[in-house]
C-alpha cells in the first residue's frame, strides 16, 4: 500500500508586493467563474478592463504594509502549518500545500502526490465556512485536474469545518490573552460575499434572504449557507468564552462593487457601536485560518482608524489560528476523517 496523500489548500497571495505580481494574482483570482459569477465576456471586461488596472497599484501598497522578512504572512503561516501537520501525521502520509491562486499551485502539488504514487488523496480547503467562491472553487479545480489522470485514486474532500470543536477552542484560546470580558463589545467579522451567491446556494429557493434572521440559526435548509455557518461559528466561539449574545455582533467585510453583499457590513456595525458609546472592541476574523491582508491590515489598520474617527479608542484583533497547537490537531483530525 502506498502513502496517503493530503492536499492543504488556502486562497493565495501574490509572489511579491510589487504591482506586477499583485496584478497577476488579482487577474487569476477575479477571473475565477465562482468568484465573479457573471458571464465570461462581462467578467473579462470588468476584471481586466476596470478592476485589475485600477486596483492593483492600491492593493500593492497594502501588501507592502504587511510584507516582512518572512514574505507574505499567509504563505508563511501556511508553510508552518504544513510542516507541523507533516510532523504529526508521520511517514505514512505525503502532505502538500497549494494555493488556489498563484504559488504553490494546485497543479504542482497534485503532481507531487501523483509522482509519490499515493493510494488516496484527502483535500482540505482551508476555509472553515463553505462558499462556492472558496471551497467550491478548490473542489472544482482539483476535480478538473485529477479527472484527466488515466488512473484516479480515491479522492475525498472536507466540505466545511465551521463547528470543529478544536478549531473553536483554538480561536477562544487565542482570545483569552486579551481578557474578552474587559472589552465593551466583541465583533466576529467574516469575509463578505455577494448576496446573489448565497441565493444560488439555496436549492429550495424558499429560504435565503426571505427573512431578516434567516441565517441566525443553522438548520437542514441552510446547512451549506456561508452566512449561516458564519453565525454558527461565532455562536460557538462566544459560548466557549461565555460571551453573552448582547455583547457580540456578526458582520461581514471586504465588499467589491455596488451590488448588495452579505450584511450587516463591518463598517456599519462600527458606526453603530461607536454611536452607542462603545470604546474598546475585540475582533475575531474566523473565516481565516492564517493571518493575511484582511486581518492584519483591513481590520487592524483600516477599521482601527475608522473606529477612532467615530470616537472609539481601540480595535484589538485576535490572532488567527496560525500555528496554534489545537488548530494543528484539528487539521490532523479532519485529514484522518
Helix content: 40-55%
Report the top-level CATH class of the largest domain.
Alpha Beta
> What integer value in Å does the Rg equal?
20 Å
Number of helices: 11
Shape: globular
Q: What is the residue-mean pLDDT, rounded to a whole number? A: 95
Number of domains: 2
Which band does the percent of strand residues land in? 5-15%
> The CATH topology of the largest domain is what?
Rossmann fold
Number of strands: 8
Describe this structure in words.
This is Ferrochelatase. It is an enzyme of class 4 (lyase). It catalyses: Fe-coproporphyrin III + 2 H(+) = coproporphyrin III + Fe(2+); heme b + 2 H(+) = protoporphyrin IX + Fe(2+). Its EC number is 4.98.1.1. It is a single chain. With 337 residues, the protein is of the alpha/beta class. It folds into two domains: 4-161 and 325-336, Rossmann fold (3-Layer(aba) Sandwich), CATH 3.40.50.1400; 165-317, Rossmann fold (3-Layer(aba) Sandwich). Helix content is 45%, strand content 15%. The protein has eleven helices and eight strands. The protein has helices at 19-30, 40-66, 73-89, 106-115, 132-146, 165-176, 195-200, 226-240, 266-275, 293-309, 325-336, and strands spanning 4-12, 93-101, 120-125, 154-157, 185-191, 248-253, 280-284, 314-317. α6 (165-176) runs antiparallel to α11 (325-336). The relative contact order is 0.14. The mean pLDDT is 95.
